[in-house]
From TrEMBL:
Matching PROSITE patterns: RESPONSE_REGULATORY, SIGMA54_INTERACT_2, SIGMA54_INTERACT_3, SIGMA54_INTERACT_4
Pfam family, one: AAA_lid_14
Family matches, as InterPro entries: AAA+_ATPase, AAA_lid_NorR, CheY-like_superfamily, Homeodomain-like_sf, P-loop_NTPase, Sig_transdc_resp-reg_receiver, Sigma_54_int, Sigma_54_int_dom_ATP-bd_2
Keywords: ATP-binding, DNA-binding, Nucleotide-binding, Phosphoprotein, Transcription, Transcription regulation
Name by which UniProt lists this protein: Two-component system response regulator GlrR
Record-listed 4-aspartylphosphate modification sites: 55
Domain Response regulatory: start-end pairs: 6-120
NCBIfam families reported for this sequence: PRK15115.1
Mitochondrion listed as a keyword: no
Gene3D superfamilies the UniProt entry points to: 1.10.8.60, 3.40.50.2300, Homeodomain-like, P-loop containing nucleotide triphosphate hydrolases
Length: 452
């Protein structure tokens, strides 16, 4: 059974607000009322309406100022403006800015209901059918995350490329998969690859495929992931780590909508939606020549930035309860959850490893507990174990690179030419490595303050 559409009604005239609210409720809409723009913005975060219906002339914040704030907080949420002083120029200006409809009071009842129905029908979030299956794996009550998910739902309806940014472990692949499930490609494959985890030739072969005999060991023809994802979505994780030579080939594939496998002379048409992700600063990578600007703009049609877990602390208890239920079902069904003190400790932790780290902590707690309720001491132990845990391959490599660069700069006293020679790199590559690790050669010259 469909849930009634939810309208946020805003008017500083209390009697008109009540009258219009009753009219909308008689039509079957759920109505939340606000007597000012400020109150409306507060209720926007709490109630997530399907549509905003606002008077134009209000003290402090008028209808257009409210509309602009709504667009910032929930892009694409339809707004209808009512005014007793309507004019053609006002209406044209409002609709050009994105207001769905601009109606003059006294508004005709049928005209109002028609405008509301049209807005709900034509907006991605319109039908209030409660179908959240596409985002079921993303557990949140954070207003920040809800805004990102609203944008994800909207962008899913088109085929534009999406770049998901955010720190490692923040859930970029989960969001990419959710966009795929909300799209028209949902019944086709979702294929993911980590561009930073494979050597260049193997990555090229995995993406584009190869012909028999294309290189040593290519004993048979291999279909690449572009072909495997045909009709669906290809998720390029850690796109910032893709080698420059492969970036050129990827750009050509996206422009021409066809690929050529290694060792083949035949091009193959492709139909895939590209979602990419990175934790790197691609603006900085472009300035340093590590990432192609033309590819960046091809991939970054829409950018969705996921926050670190510490910026959505209200989600930690919610996630922890969800994760402990999953882990208990797999390993120890008698485990029921965390003690209040344990949940408080989880909520107050910094989570440098983000959601991925929280998953590990919960798994450790479930594995080690012998009681139905996990105590604070066990959470504290798991957090300490995580801090001392073996780093990922990429983290270990970055740590080694930085330590090595510091060592050769100390040996050469900041002389980049000598340091590059020791490292077996040309000066340009060596400077790029220094930039990636925020190292300044001058800091290693005699007499310089080597704080790092």
């Amino acid at each position: 059974m469909k849930q009634a559409a939810h309208v946020l009604l805003v008017d500083d005239d209390v009697s008109l607000l009540k009258l219009l609210g009753m009219r909308l409720e008689s039509r079957g809409y759920r109505v939340t009322t606000a007597e000012s723009g400020r109150e409306a913005l507060d209720k926007l975060e709490q109630t997530r309406p399907d549509l905003v219906l606002s008077d134009l002339r209000m003290d402090e914040m008028d209808g257009m100022a409210l509309f602009q704030q709504v667009q910032k907080r929930m892009p694409g949420l339809p707004v209808i403006i009512l005014t007793a002083h309507g004019s053609i120029p006002d209406a044209v200006s409002a609709t050009r800015q994105g207001v769905f409809s601009f109606l003059t009071k006294p508004v005709d009842r049928d005209e109002l209901f028609s405008a509301i129905d049209d807005a709900l029908r034509q907006t991605a979030n319109a039908s209030a059918d409660g179908d959240d299956a596409w985002r079921a794996e993303i557990i949140t009550r954070s207003p920040h995350m809800e805004r990102i998910l609203e944008q994800a739902r909207m962008v899913a309806g088109s085929d534009v490329s999406v770049l998901v940014t955010g720190p490692s472990g923040s859930g970029k692949e989960l969001l990419a998969n959710a966009i795929h499930r909300a799209s028209s490609r949902v019944h086709k494959p979702f294929v993911a690859i980590n561009c930073g985890a494979l050597p260049e030739q193997l990555l090229e072969s995995e993406l584009f495929g190869h012909a028999k005999g294309a290189f040593t060991g290519a004993i048979s023809q291999h279909e690449g992931l572009f072909q495997a994802a045909d009709g669906g979505t290809l998720f390029l994780d850690e796109i910032g780590d893709m080698p420059l030579t492969l970036q050129v080939k990827l750009l050509r594939a996206l422009q021409e909508r066809q690929i050529r496998p290694l060792g083949s002379t035949t091009s193959i048409p492709i139909d895939v939606r590209i979602i990419s992700a990175t934790h790197r600063d691609l603006d900085k990578a472009m300035r340093e020549g590590d990432f192609r600007e033309d590819l960046f703009y091809r991939l970054n049609v829409v950018n969705l930035r996921l926050p670190p877990l510490k910026e959505r602390a209200e989600d930690v208890p919610l996630l922890a309860k969800h994760l402990v239920t999953q882990a208990a079902a797999r390993h120890k069904p008698f485990v029921k959850g965390f003690s209040p003190e344990a949940l408080n400790l989880l909520a107050s932790s910094a989570w440098p490893g983000n959601v991925r780290q929280l998953v590990n902590v919960v798994e450790q707690c479930v594995a080690l507990t012998s009681a139905p309720i996990i105590p604070e001491a066990l959470v504290s132990q798991a957090l300490m174990a995580e801090e001392n845990a073996l780093p990922s391959f990429n983290e270990a490599r970055a740590g080694f690179e930085r330590s090595y660069l510091i060592k050769v700069l100390k040996i050469t006293e900041g002389n980049v030419t000598q340091a590059a020679r020791i490292a077996g790199r040309n000066r340009t590559d060596f400077y790029k490595l220094l930039g990636r690790h925020d190292l300044e050669p001058g800091a290693f010259k005699p007499g310089a303050d080597q704080a790092g």
